[in-house]
């Protein structure tokens, strides 16, 4: 089992089929959830359906572990398909076609959403304006990044992974072909990562304001290219221009810097070595409403806005590069249900 899993996993690494974060998740699931039940030396063709079902059934009822169970099922299905393709087993020795994970019906999903905090996952238009107004007082570049996210629905890593070459200003299109790698030091190669999945490769049509933001950022970069000797230009758009870390000038910003800026204390905290952490603006305590602000909320805000405008779910999924059964669907169902609740009172106006 281990040899086949390792070969499958290495192939995905070498061919750069998925993002590093996804690969890390696969490795963690294998070591934490599969290996304890299926020892390394187990012969693949001898693994019964009942054992896999037992692994998944143990996880499914436990809180958010349904997602882990679904991921394990997906991992194992891919491994067995890989084994069949390489003649390690025959198709009739694949136990995965008989493994299922129950899905809730639409009414159950809507009922669950009523009890959830889904509205805390996105911002209303007025809330977005308030957040951007506060951020802009402290850091105009970060405000542009968050606004760009809200206008495009892109993941923060996709935004930070944009290069000038990926923008077609004649057609106002951004090609999402890479993400800002989540790990690595100050070398050009370490900053380029793969997007989350196949659906993530896409062209995003840009609004006029989104185009304006890109042009503003590129103009600033060109200024630094000309006048800042520490600035190393590799074509990234949203780059570091810090006087405190000149070695990083010209490198793409890291998403953790942005989230720390949003959520860290204004006074800063000490790290393990006793040095002050980067101070932030503690934005949650500056808002007139109660929501936790991270970079992902701006992507969700884009999704909720499109849902309110009546854009079909499939079109939204294509635009933001997400698959079915995701947070996109949850937000869509919640927002459209809210809209439906306003229809009946409006109908009475028809004959008045």
From TrEMBL:
GO biological process: DNA integration; DNA recombination
GO molecular function annotations of the record: DNA binding
InterPro entries: DNA_brk_join_enz, Integrase-like_cat_sf, Integrase_catalytic, Integrase_recombinase_N, Phage_Integrase
Keywords per UniProt: DNA integration, DNA recombination, DNA-binding
Pfam family, one: Phage_integrase
Annotated Tyr recombinase domain residues: 118-345
Family: Belongs to the 'phage' integrase family.
Listed name of the protein: Site-specific integrase
Organism: Streptococcus salivarius
Upper classification of the organism: Bacteria, Bacillati, Bacillota, Bacilli, Lactobacillales
